[in-house]
UniProtKB/TrEMBL annotation:
Hydrolase listed as a keyword: yes
Transmembrane spans: 28-52, 59-77
One Pfam family recorded for the sequence: Exo_endo_phos
Protein name, entry field: Putative endonuclease/exonuclease/phosphatase family protein
The Endonuclease/exonuclease/phosphatase domain, residue ranges: 98-294
Protein's UniProt keywords contain Cell inner membrane: no
This protein's UniProt keywords: Endonuclease, Exonuclease, Hydrolase, Membrane, Nuclease, Transmembrane, Transmembrane helix
InterPro entries: Endo/exonu/phosph_ase_sf (IPR036691), Endo/exonuclease/phosphatase (IPR005135)
Source taxon at top rank: Bacteria
Molecular function, one GO term: exonuclease activity
Length: 310
C-alpha cells in the first residue's frame, strides 16, 4: 500500500515538474498558462514530494523535492530581474494611474466602478472591457474630461483611457491578428514632463501563436516612443512567461519588487499577477497596490504612483 501511494505521488509530481521544466526547452504557446504558475506548481510539487517521503523514504522523493525547490527559487529570481530599485519615500509623486479590467458583462457594477474611479485620485484611468461604464461616461468626463476609446478612435468599447489633462496625439492600434483596437497610444504633459502611455489588452497566451504576435507588435511600438513610458493593461500572463520576459528585457521595462496578484479572484493574494503596470526609465514606480474590491470583475484592478529620477 505504501509503495502504491508513493508511486502515485511520484508520478503526479514528475508530470508537473516536466511541464514546468519545458520552459527551459521551448516557449510552446500551449504551455504558457503553466509557465505563469511556475511558483505555485513548484510549491505544490515540493509539498507532494514531502508527502511521498513521509509515506516511504526513497531517493526519487528527494530528487523531485530538490527539483521543485530549484524551480521555485528560479521563479523568484526571474521575478526579481525586472524589479526597479525602491523610490525614496520623500520623492514627490508625478502622477497616479489606475488600470482595471472590469469584465465586459459586468453591467450591474458599472456605476460603482465609475464612483470608485472618480474618487480614486488617479490622474489617468485605464478601463479594459469598458462597456459596463459606457453609460457612466458623461459623469466620468466631469472629472476626466479627456479620453480615447469607446467612440473616440474606435466604435467598440473595449479599451477606455481617461485623463484629467489633455491627451497628446491619442491613437488606437490593433495588436496581432485576433482582436482589433486593443492598444491605445497617448501622452500626457505633467508640468513640463511628457510621459507616453501604452494601454494594452492581450489575448490568452494559449490561443495559437496570436499572443506572440501581439508581444512582437508591442516590442516594435515601444522604441518609437522616446522618454518616459508606461505600459499597462491586461496581459493574461505573469512575467514568468518567456515572451513577456523578453519584451521587458529588450525594451527596458521595470516593475515593483512584488507585483500584486490580480487573478483569479477566488485565490486573492495567492493568485498570479496577470495585470501589469510597467515603467521605462527615467520613470520609476513608487508603488503599485491592488484595489481591494473587484467590483464583480474577474480581475482585481491596480493603482500605481510614479516618480521620475532626478
Amino acid at each position: 500500500m505504501r509503495d502504491t501511494i508513493f508511486c502515485v505521488f511520484s508520478v503526479l509530481t514528475t508530470l508537473v515538474l516536466a511541464i514546468v521544466s519545458l520552459r527551459y526547452v521551448t516557449d510552446f504557446y500551449l504551455l504558457s498558462f503553466f509557465y505563469s504558475f511556475q511558483l505555485h506548481l513548484a510549491a505544490a510539487a515540493a509539498l507532494a514530494s514531502l508527502v511521498a517521503l513521509l509515506v516511504k523514504r526513497h531517493w526519487y522523493g528527494l530528487l523531485t523535492l530538490g527539483i521543485s525547490l530549484a524551480l521555485a527559487v528560479h521563479g523568484i529570481v526571474m521575478t526579481r530581474e525586472f524589479a526597479q530599485p525602491a523610490v525614496d519615500a520623500h520623492r514627490p509623486v508625478l502622477f497616479r494611474l489606475m488600470s482595471f479590467n472590469i469584465e465586459n458583462d459586468n453591467f450591474a457594477n458599472g456605476g460603482a466602478i465609475a464612483d470608485m474611479a472618480i474618487a480614486s485620485g488617479a490622474d489617468v484611468v485605464n478601463i479594459l472591457e469598458a462597456e459596463p461604464v459606457l453609460s457612466e461616461l458623461p459623469r466620468l468626463l466631469k472629472t476626466y474630461p479627456y479620453y480615447v476609446g469607446c467612440g473616440i478612435g474606435m466604435q467598440q468599447c473595449d479599451t477606455l483611457v481617461l485623463s484629467k489633462r489633455p491627451l497628446i496625439e491619442p491613437r488606437i492600434r490593433s495588436l496581432g491578428l485576433l482582436w482589433r483596437n486593443r492598444l491605445t497610444i497617448s501622452a500626457v504633459d505633467f508640468d513640463g514632463r511628457k510621459v507616453n502611455f501604452l494601454t494594452a489588452h492581450l489575448t490568452k497566451p494559449y490561443y495559437d501563436e496570436f499572443y506572440g504576435l501581439e508581444l512582437e507588435d508591442l516590442a516594435a511600438i515601444a522604441p518609437s516612443l522616446p522618454g518616459p513610458l508606461v505600459l499597462a493593461g491586461d496581459f493574461n500572463s505573469s512575467i514568468l512567461t518567456p515572451g513577456v520576459q523578453n519584451l521587458l528585457r529588450t525594451e527596458g521595462f521595470g516593475t515593483v519588487s512584488l507585483e500584486p496578484a490580480t487573478w483569479p479572484i477566488a485565490a486573492s493574494v495567492f493568485g498570479i499577477p496577470i495585470d501589469h503596470i510597467f515603467a521605462r526609465a527615467p520613470l520609476r514606480l513608487k508603488s503599485v497596490r491592488r484595489i481591494a474590491d473587484s467590483f464583480g470583475s474577474n480581475h482585481f484592478g491596480l493603482m500605481a504612483e510614479f516618480a521620475v529620477d532626478p
